[in-house]
Amino acid sequence: MDIAIMGYGVVGSGVALLLQKNYESIVARSMQSSLNLKYILDLLDFPGDPFESLIIHDFETILRDENIGIVVETMGGLNPAYDFVRRCLLAGKSVVTSNKELVATKGYDLLCVAKEHNVNFLFEASVGGGIPIIRPLTQCLAANEITEVAGILNGTTNFILTRMIENAMPFDHALRLAQNNGYAETDPTADIDGHDACRKICILAALSFGQHVYPEQVRTQGIAALTTDDVEAAGDFGYAVKLLGRAKRLPNGRISCSVAPTLVPRESMLANVRDVYNAILVRGNAIDDVIFYGRGAGKLPTASAVVADIIDCAKHTTRRRFFGWEAGGTHFVADADDDAVNMFVRAIADDTDQARQQLVGLFPTMEEKKTASGSLCFMTGVATPRLVKQALASIDGLQVTQMLRVL
Amino acid sequence: MDIAIMGYGVVGSGVALLLQKNYESIVARSMQSSLNLKYILDLLDFPGDPFESLIIHDFETILRDENIGIVVETMGGLNPAYDFVRRCLLAGKSVVTSNKELVATKGYDLLCVAKEHNVNFLFEASVGGGIPIIRPLTQCLAANEITEVAGILNGTTNFILTRMIENAMPFDHALRLAQNNGYAETDPTADIDGHDACRKICILAALSFGQHVYPEQVRTQGIAALTTDDVEAAGDFGYAVKLLGRAKRLPNGRISCSVAPTLVPRESMLANVRDVYNAILVRGNAIDDVIFYGRGAGKLPTASAVVADIIDCAKHTTRRRFFGWEAGGTHFVADADDDAVNMFVRAIADDTDQARQQLVGLFPTMEEKKTASGSLCFMTGVATPRLVKQALASIDGLQVTQMLRVL
Description:
2 copies of one chain form a homodimer.
Chain A: E1 2-6, H1 10-21, H2 23-30, E2 36-41, E3 55-56, H3 59-64, E4 68-73, H4 81-90, E5 94-97, H5 100-116, E6 121-122, H6 134-140, E7 146-152, H7 155-167, H8 171-180, H9 189-192, H10 195-209, E8 219-220, H11 228-236, E9 239-249, E10 255-265, E11 277-284, E12 288-295, H12 299-315, E13 333-334, E14 341-349, H13 352-362, E15 367-368, E16 376-383, H14 385-393, E17 398-406
Parallel strand pairs in A: 1-2, 1-4, 2-3, 4-5, 5-6, 8-10, 10-13, 10-17
Antiparallel strand pairs in A: 7-9, 7-11, 9-10, 11-12, 14-16, 14-17, 15-16
Helix pairs in contact in A: 1-12, 2-12, 4-5, 5-10, 7-8
């Protein structure tokens, strides 16, 4: 079977390398006599690269070659990835992608095209890098009704938060350290503002709950507004602050889907996920909590997931892998403000004692801790963020500086 | 499709319950029009039980019923489970089991029978209870050469160790607490002595490295000889003591396979696995470290894994799931004493200063910590346990009271 790679960046070159490195066992596990990497599509030429001779610049070459059964898309972005992937599927080629933006935005459409043309569209690498999550979620936990999925889905922000927690390093300083270590891009917006995690939680939500969730339906909050005071105060209550993507079925049947800095109890395994590592928690009605942990990015770890999908495509040339989801809709996704949780609040009051008195009236189970700065810092007890915001707004002279949910 | 359960204990009754609880989604995911639980084989009658009417006592009823396509074995033990399972496979029925002793002892034979008769023999529940591990290991990580697999595979011993570490509770006291909480059996030997973990690491080793590993080939050491002093001293060096099942490919190509209390660095996620939870670490040459965490036992978690296998059997009525391993052999398994690791040693010397001087000569990179009791306590630096034992034996008047490996 012949394979083409589209996009020779970090992940694409990792796939070429891994196919070569573990070639013998990969072929044996794919039930094929051979797996031949034939083309690598890229804009550039890569002179001197070991795979230089495979580089092509014209997508049509791949499309027209009937021997190409599997196309790997590791270009990233929507254009031209979406067009290329769609046309490959229409031409009867299976596609494996690591492109979370593509799956989060166009997943339902592409799954439909793949189904109509009896080919596979697989994307294990699009969430959690090398961590096995999509098959475990759809197959191993198939006996469960999933009630919640929550994860540390972005290594860059987890590295920054780890430094803020463990070294009391301010956000800006920790971001620069991440950049110096190669963990953050020069323009770190997609990571810092939560957009990367947002795309991943969309995919996990769709797999867990059966309908497409679009990035614009997800309330997304990044970590740039967090201070070391926030992180320290959360620590005083026994929590670590982690950027969590989270999708949860509410009692009304709708799915609450969000990305936000979240307080994770220190006893939770998620609280102990440090630096650039990722972890995904799945809650099911039979299994209770399961956690999958590992490297969420990187050349070979991500390639490991891509190649697992290649093996799966090669094994299933005449049969499709059965997973996917239905079309999304506005009725499916709840407002995350309707999800009742315990909340952490920091605020400054004109008259602290008076504000405290009013707060105790509004939040009878609230728990307060003294802060060095004299600001008010407390946990509300379980309530919907909507009600908490209304209640806090009703107190004169109270300025809320931070408000975070608890896992 | 009709299903029979053999053995109506904790797991078997969980399977019946879960099939009922999530029936609709389970049937949909199995691609069948129905999944009908028809018989439950047990020695007892269970009057008043919701599934009382399905109870039968004669195995031949299941064997002769041509509509039974999937048989669930949750009896445990080798006899009569082995005979029953084998005859079901010979009769063209797929078998799903949670019986680790059966798979660790007879797995290769049963996989061969299943292959010859084109049926499935699946056993996700036999390792790590509800934690998805067998599919992730064989499918999601298929692009990797696995170099090591190590896990906290027994909840009872992990509960006891957690109490010893966190509460400085002596072993006997922690064992009684585990028994009072229903986490340990009245006869806790199989857990405490490591036999349960041994069966599980046999299965993981076979899946990871491709040949059957038999329990008698695994050096198995339990936790009964651990003292709170050991645990505390390990803590001083920055480690948590965990009972690990461990299988590792050595530079000579052979597999070292062992069960033993092991020092796990406190920064490792495995060190943070508390109480009855289990976790399995897989190391691959592309993925680096991945960890799977969750409930390693219990009625519904284990049933979750069994029912996932049932769904898989139902989806693959005409095709087999491709995984298994080759026959084992003496040449395949290494002596765990040949695996070079850092080691933790506690010892009492007739002349402490003189012994220390000799030790420094033998272990130039050794690291020592003072103990309250005045006993010698040190890390050897990386060496094979064989050499460490020889070296320690060469010191006159030195009595080794504890010797543990580091992960």
